[in-house]
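Researcher: Here's my situation. A collaborator sent me these components and asked whether they could plausibly form a single complex. I don't have experimental data yet, so a predicted model of the whole assembly would be a useful starting point for our discussion.
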Amino acid sequence: MFRYADDAELQGKEHPERGSGRTRPDLPMSTLACLLLGAAMAGLYHLLPRTRPGRPFRAPLLALGGFILAQCGLSAAIAGLGLVPKGPFHDLLQQLTDYDGDRPVVLLIGSSFSEAGIDPDVLAEALGGSGRAAELQRLAVGGAPHLERLHYLKEYLARAKRRPQLVLLEIAGGYDSGPLYQVHQMRFTDRMVAMMDGSSAWWALRWLAGADGLSLFQRFTLGSEILGQLALHVSHIGFLWNSSPVRETVTTYDSGGSPLPTRFSDDDTAELLEQAAAAGDMKPDWPADVPTQWMSAFLAEEIAILQRHSVERFAFYSVPSMQGANVAYARRFCGAITKFACIIGEDPNLLADLRHGADWYDFDHLQGAAREVFTRWLGDRLVEMGVWP
Amino acid sequence: MNFVSFEFAVFLAVVYLLHWSCRHAGTRKLLLTIASYVFYAVWNWRFCFLMLFVTVNAFAAGQMLARATRPSRKAVLAASIGIDLAILGFFKYYDFFLSNVAAALADLGVSASQPVLRIILPVGISFYTFHAVSYVVDVYRGKVEPEPSFVNIALYISFFPQLIAGPIVRASFILPQIRHLRSFSPAQQATGVRLLLRGFIYKAVIADTLAQIADPVFAHVEHYDAHALVTATVAFYGQIYFDFAGYSSMAIGTARLFGYRFPPNFNYPYRAASVTEFWRRWHMSLSFWLRDYLYIPLGGNRGGTLFVCRNLMITMLLGGLWHGAGWNYVVWGALHGGGLCANKLWREAGRRLPMSIDVRGGRHIAALVLTQLWVMLAWVFFRCDSAAQATEVFAAILGLRPHPGAVVLPVEGCILAIIGIDHTLGSARLRLSLSARWARALAWSGVGALFALGLAAMPVVQKPFIYFQF
């Protein structure tokens, strides 16, 4: 069947050894539940009347009706039992939506750039310097394409006890220019299947229809993948195995742990940052119009959804990068956005503080002390520009 | 190509539509033959030539048997079977044989280098060589006419529903069907769909869930305690039934969709109250094949008790070895051979005793429990990688191993209940009693609903069918 990859697999641990050296029961209760369901299904199969198909198409129509009814029943049961697909977003959502305090919520939506480069506590502290404390919530997971972010934003809004007052949206040339790149890279994984609902599929197909420079074969492949994942999502294939109750223990996600060994020398970093600041060209395969028509429509939809949930303030930001194309993209993007504040991480003073090789995990991801430096700078900009309070 | 896979669903849909849109029997057969070779080539296209060679060998033998005089017929038969067995022996047993010879020589103090070739075992070789042998022997015995059409023989040997893991369909059973144009019948299609659904539930939902219990334990038996090993043994007892019966049901259902009828392969074997009865219900196409092509030629029941027991043991030892090149399979065959002999002796004793030893009531239950316990313990040898590992499992279960090991949830009762539900409701042929209109509505909407539930309850990473390795 379509092969799903679990998180362990995505991290390169494809075949975790089960059972070795364990001293407690390692058989999940879902196994028992599936066994009981299997027994009920086998029993029901034997009890079903055996009849001839009758008039042409009657039997297939009845079977289709039964299939759809069962799918509806499953959807209702899943909602009733509070089951959600396993994965980093749901663990994160559980943490974020539980907040029921008095401080106003600031929601930050992004990818690994934000996950690595922004420390929620430091940003909350920086915003609090304005005299109005904030609860910072970072809805950012590595490799999350826009479709996935929007999917989980909707879930967040549906479940959050406190609605956000300010939403910060990440700008990144790669994600904005090729919204299906990560979807293709992670095709048929738990994550992609879980987020590929009708709305995600619609936006994905809409991009596919309007994208330039794709061959017919690429369009066919990507289109098939989208529809395949939509089918898996809608038909709940393997859902009972890949889901968990929403109230189960969650993992704390914080990528601000020990920095990884330095890859760049201080001199190299300084030179790369200078080149990036001076760069004016984006990557050749990125569309020249920034934001693209698709991206504009997508952002309009995202903002409209947030506005329907009483969010009134928005801002865009880009995380510092040593790649000129990313900086150039952020500049063009901010140039095109007039309605909302748009902050690019290219302030010379900020970059001067990030010229140490130890500050960078790679060309685009901050680490160690650098994340605090950037986060504080971002908080100060938001206050200066009047985005907060 | 796994039957429970997206690839197979697409393959089946395409071949199905093409098949029924062809009007001529010859075109349909050619299409199915090509499709079957494509099906096989997805695994490894190189071995298509091996299957083609086996087919040519069978076809040529059939033609020669048609023309040969009486003395030379035996030579043709022996040559054809010899070629099939040589192919099977080389690909399946060469490395096993050489490593055992080397080990035996080493025990005698003779150092010998092992020219082990690490030969890839072609999927389904045990099945398609048996199909080829079945055809040649049936022609020799006059049970089937020599087939003049090569395509018919090629389709018989390669027909994709039974290519990888059977059922082993007799030439005399299927060739008459292949020769005639298959007609499209809604009732036949309905049966095919139901059988596919049944196989899907058995395999995708139950067997693969049971594998989640059994596989981790059997992968590291040294880490688990006695109770965990018992749970895993019971889980495998259920898994292999639901896996193989599920596969067989899907194979028979798929063939039915194309208008072909295969013989049943399973008849609720865990209801058997003797090992003899077990083999009349388990993998019936193999046990009847072994009976007709091995046991009876060995002498069958014609002789004294010891002679019959000898034949039973030889048949089951070879049957065990047929499953895999390993001593654990030989032991598994020996245990079943022993069970058959014990049953034979019991029945012999019954004839001589003045009292009845018919198994009814309480005695039936005792016989059932004893038989199934025997079958279950034999499965340990079948499941383990080696006889030594199986011995370790028994040592742990009997408390002869001090290491307490890890535990798993005790679900033996649940697993046995599932088997009980399936066997009781399935063999009793109980049906919900409704008016014709409601019965039809329930029957077909139920098929759709069960399929939807099965999709949600199946583990997403599907395991290959166990018998694909044979």
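Model: Some features of this prediction you could bring to your collaborator: The longest helix of chain B spans residues 70-107. Chain B touches chain A through 70 residues (CB under 8 Å).
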